[in-house]
Amino acid sequence: MQYLIWDFDGTLGYRDGGMWSGTLREILRDERPEIDAPIEVLREYVGRGYPWHMPEAPHCHLDTAEKWWEALMPVLARALAGVGVPEAEAAVLARQFPARYTELSRWRLFSDTLPALSALSAVGWRHVLLTNHVPELPRIVAHLGLDAHLSAVFNSAQTGYEKPHPRAFHNVLDFIGPAEAVWMIGDNPKADVAGAEAAGIPAILVRTMGVDVRYRCEELAGVAEIIASAPASR
């Protein structure tokens, strides 16, 4: 068997309207339109405090969606308060975030995602998703029709391990078992590429330029070319 391990956000799909800071702006637009917080300012607030900002610390105790989101409420409320929402109101508005962020109509696949997965499947590759994401990811994946292409989904919100934690990758390797070849594909040089390589998995950086890595391509069509020409993996 040959396996490709894929990241999701920024690699296979994305949220239309923005991710964390974009969703906070949506809340402000609807609830506090007089506060025109620049996206850069909101990014400063959401650039710390999430589970993937502390990948060295497993969070297996956040084993339900309710616990997972509850742990993030102070981070989201802090961001809203930081741009001028009174603290008590910020705590209330933060609770809108999960439903808004996971609204299915917001999620998209890149135009080259399904063609690339189908082409690689046709030549014998199987696909596994390994991503740092929210508990509702399986619902998002199913809505996008991506689940039909995947052998398994490993989501940090469910496993308790964020990339680049070694356990995140070894969970997938344990599932795969003996394989002819395994590759990781993602858009994050640290979480996807460095994390995979530390676990003994060759990795391809996609959609991210200007970073010094061994394997890189801008479009997913380039993945097939790289794995066909590279030395045998794993």
Q: Can you list the strand order of the major beta sheet? A: 5-4-1-6-7-8
Number of strands: 8
CATH superfamily of the largest domain: HAD superfamily/HAD-like
CATH architectural name of the largest domain: 3-Layer(aba) Sandwich
User: What is the approximate shape?
Assistant: elongated
Mind describing the biggest β-sheet?
Answer: 6 strands, parallel
Low-confidence stretches: none
Work out the radius of gyration: 18 Å
Task: Indicate the mean pLDDT.
Answer: 95
Structural write-up:
The protein is elongated. Helix 1 crosses helix 2 and helix 3 (65-82) packs antiparallel against helix 4. With 234 residues, it is an alpha/beta fold. The strands form 2 sheets. The protein has a 6-stranded parallel beta sheet with strand order 5-4-1-6-7-8, with helices on both faces. Strands 2-3 form a two-stranded antiparallel ribbon. It contains 11 helices and 8 strands. Helix 10 (189-198) links the parallel strand 6 (181-186) and strand 7. It is 43% helix and 15% strand. It folds into 2 domains: 2-14 and 107-229, Rossmann fold (3-Layer(aba) Sandwich); 16-105.
